[in-house]
UniProtKB/TrEMBL annotation:
Protein family per UniProt: Belongs to the outer membrane factor (OMF) (TC 1.B.17) family.
Name this polypeptide is given: Efflux transporter outer membrane subunit
Record's compositionally biased regions (Pro residues): 19-30
Membrane topology: Lipid-anchor
Stored InterPro entries: MdtP/NodT-like, OMP_efflux
């Protein structure tokens, strides 16, 4: 009978291991056109490759002081602490207890007063027969790695958000500059029309039309200026800078869209998906869910606990002292017999969470492929449309100049001139929108490609100018955990 029990335990322990399902494969190739023929190139520190140093400075500032990143760092610290807690479960525990009391007893006589002092040391060690404790450590490690990857993902998302808001501000300022030119032109036309009305060369209706056009152009310019103010407020919130200091910093390159140095994208989707921190986090959460199944499964099997205690005591009565010691040592076996199906339900719940984690990974993987494809499509479309939009704006400008010259000579009506101006304004706005869309597509492609994260960097390595956050992250996420390990 003796050899059978260890063999039974070994067989049960082997049944407790759960392996996470393999993730779905990435598509074999991209369907959208890729820039620069798709030669691989690192994306890290890409913001420094813009022709606008202020963008890189704002990104670095946001990385240094942002509540979202601070929360991510705090989650890393929590996950590291939980990993320590899980690791401690494999070690023996040792607790000490010291008690002293003085007692008086006067019934029956004579009165006795005595002092008792007791010290006790208790030790316990649970043998991890079925791997539940080790599975708990694996789950905690996976959660810690997921928290570190989520910090990277938060950094990438924050950088892209700062860049897109900065791009929106510069595009808005450029539109304000165009609106100012349009207001000036509308003012000139309104003034000339008023003079013509006074001398009888134009009807009062055309004078009213010219004034209405001027007022409408001014109103749109004021609305556009308000939009710029809103974007400035967003940048203040993202970077933590005081608004006067931010405005002074932004004034040097007003109305100039930043131009990136184009980077290339890997030819195979699997290479791009491997460097996305959100997918790495989802994969680690999948591993943690699989380990949690083992933890729940281990609760259904017996537990073997080794316990021991040493007690020292002393009693003093009327000047007479007596002392002694005793000890105890032995195993304790706990057998789960009847729990109303609770442990089985906990295993079922853990398996359901594993299925949920797998579905979340698959959803994130598909979304990642879609985001890259969409960014590639937008980038290709914007690049092909920009030249046509530029030519359209230039030709509409020539047409407006010719129409205004004809109108001043009386060979064109005011309605023709106003229609030509509206077409020119629309063409200029379309050109600005295409240029903004092209830069935004680069930013979105940077974000969709994982922002240069490849899983081998320490959490604080790429912080650059973010001194405070980098120092905190480096302290809480030392390279002891290789994020790229399976």
């Amino acid at each position: 009978m003796r050899p059978a029990f260890p063999l039974c335990l070994a067989l049960l322990a082997g049944c407790a291991s759960t392996t996470p399902p393999p993730p779905p494969p990435a598509p074999p190739s991209w369907q959208a056109p890729r820039p620069h023929e798709g030669e691989p190139q690192a994306l890290a520190r890409w913001w420094d490759r813009f022709d606008d140093p202020q963008l890189a400075a704002l990104v670095a500032r946001a990385q240094a002081d942002n509540p979202t990143l601070a929360q991510a760092v705090a989650r890393i610290a929590q996950a590291r602490a939980q990993l320590t807690v899980a690791g401690a479960a494999l070690s023996p525990t040792l607790d000490g207890n010291l008690a002293a009391s003085r007692t008086s007893n006067n019934f029956p006589p004579p009165t006795l007063t005595y002092t008792a002092v007791t010290s006790r040391v208790d030790a316990a060690w649970e043998l991890d027969l079925f791997g539940g404790r080790r599975a708990g450590i694996a789950a905690a490690q996976a959660q810690a790695d997921a928290a570190a990857a989520q910090w990277h993902d938060a950094r990438v998302s924050l950088a892209a958000e700062v860049a897109l808001n900065y791009l929106s501000l510069r595009a808005c300022e450029a539109q304000v500059a165009l609106d100012a030119q349009n207001v000036a032109a509308a003012g000139q036309i309104a003034d000339l029309t008023r003079r013509k009305v006074e001398v009888g060369f134009e009807s009062p209706a055309n004078g009213a039309l010219a004034q209405a056009t001027l007022s409408d152009t001014r109103a749109r310019a004021q609305a556009q200026q308000a939009e710029c103010e809103v974007v400035v407020k967003a940048l203040v919130a993202l970077t933590g800078l005081e608004e006067p200091a931010l405005r002074a910093q932004l004034a040097a390159r007003a109305a100039q869209l930043p131009q990136p140095a184009g980077f290339s994208i890997a030819a195979l989707p699997a290479q791009v998906l491997a460097q996305r921190p959100d997918l790495a986090a989802a994969e680690q959460q999948l591993r943690a869910a699989a380990a949690s199944v083992d933890v729940a499964q281990a609760q259904r099997w017996p537990k073997l606990l080794l316990t021991g205690a040493i007690t020292l005591g002393a009693v003093r009565i009327g000047g007479v002292q007596d002392s002694g010691a005793n000890w105890a040592l032995g195993p304790a076996l706990t057998l789960p017999l009847l729990d109303g199906g609770r442990r089985r339900a906990e295993v079922d719940a853990a398996r359901a969470r594993l299925d949920e984690a797998l579905a979340a990974w698959q959803q994130r993987s598909r979304a990642a492929v879609r985001e890259v494809e969409e960014a590639l499509v937008r980038l290709d479309a914007a690049a092909r449309r920009e030249e046509d939009a530029r030519l359209a704006a230039e030709n509409w400008q020539r047409f407006v100049e010719a129409t205004q010259a004809r109108w001043e000579l009386g060979n064109a009506s005011l309605i023709e001139l106003q229609d030509a101006r509206r077409q020119r304004i629309a063409a200029e706005a379309a050109l600005l929108a295409v240029r903004r869309e092209r830069v935004a597509a680069w930013v979105q492609l940077y974000k969709a490609s994982g922002g240069g994260w490849d899983g081998s960097l320490a959490v604080g390595e790429e912080a650059g100018a973010s001194r405070n956050l980098a120092a905190t992250a480096a302290a809480t996420t030392a390279p002891e955990s290789n994020l790229s390990k399976p």
